[in-house]
Design a protein that fits this description.
Length: 245
């Protein structure tokens, strides 16, 4: 990746990690775990960014299908529950990969748990090469280890592939000092430091993920994925959502 400064009419970032929750693939109020129309819309936004020449990797959660932590709270062995959650992320990754390829995007799904008939194993050098060749890389199966969230996966993968920023897609406009659904006058932070997120317990990402981003100086932008075109707006440098730095 070149260190030369980008012309002003070019995207602000060259290489990014997009963090998607599994819930982002589900229609609000629906019992359907994956909405084909929502997956198609997200894929379209990703392809638009990729077509700008941005190298984009996606880390996807599995909460629309299975939540390991919730299952462990109901008595299931935590390790088993987390492995089931990792498999759920692969299902979501396959859905997103299919939608992207139907639009003509070249993609690779890499998983932290080896499953040769489904996806490539995660190899950092191979992932970087795919990105350099303009392919969208989807990271599935979390870190491959129980007790780690997909937020931590995003922080880890971003550090490994030397991404410039993590885009954390949510269903709200950014980071607030209180739940904006419950508190009408909740304050939106345009910018906030890693330490402020940690000390105030804002729950943007889990503490492991935030600490990893802080240690490796990977900024995070938290934004609303439900507003169509927001991914491109962030990439083009428009002030969308909240910046954690």
């Amino acid at each position: 990746m070149s260190n030369t400064e980008l012309p002003s009419d070019q995207p602000k970032y060259r290489r990014i990690v997009l963090k998607l929750s599994g819930e982002a693939l589900r229609e609000q109020g629906s019992h359907e775990t994956i909405s084909p129309s929502i997956v198609t819309d997200i894929a379209r936004q990703i392809k638009q960014v990729s077509d700008l020449g941005v190298e984009i990797a996606v880390v996807i959660g599995g909460g629309n299908i299975w939540r390991g932590l919730s299952a462990s709270h109901r008595g299931m062995n935590r390790t088993t529950a987390d492995y089931m959650g990792m498999l759920a992320t692969v299902i979501n990754g396959l859905a997103l990969q299919t939608a992207l390829e139907q639009m003509g995007a070249v993609t690779r799904l890499q998983t932290a748990i080896e499953m040769a008939n489904v996806a490539e194993p995660f190899i950092v050098r191979r992932a970087i090469r795919h990105l350099e060749l303009g392919r969208v890389v989807i990271f599935g199966a979390g870190t491959g280890n129980p007790f780690f969230s997909t937020d931590t996966t995003a922080a880890l993968r971003a550090s490994e592939i030397r991404a410039e920023i993590i885009l954390k897609a949510t269903k709200v406009d950014g980071i607030y000092d209180a739940d904006p659904v419950k508190v009408a006058n909740a304050k939106l932070y345009e910018e906030i430091t890693y330490m402020e997120v940690l000390t105030q317990g804002l729950g943007v990402m889990d503490t492991t993920a935030i600490s990893l981003c802080m240690d490796n100086k990977v900024p995070i932008i938290v934004f609303n994925i439900r507003m169509k075109g927001n991914i491109r707006r962030v990439i083009e440098g428009e002030k969308i959502g909240s910046l954690v730095y």
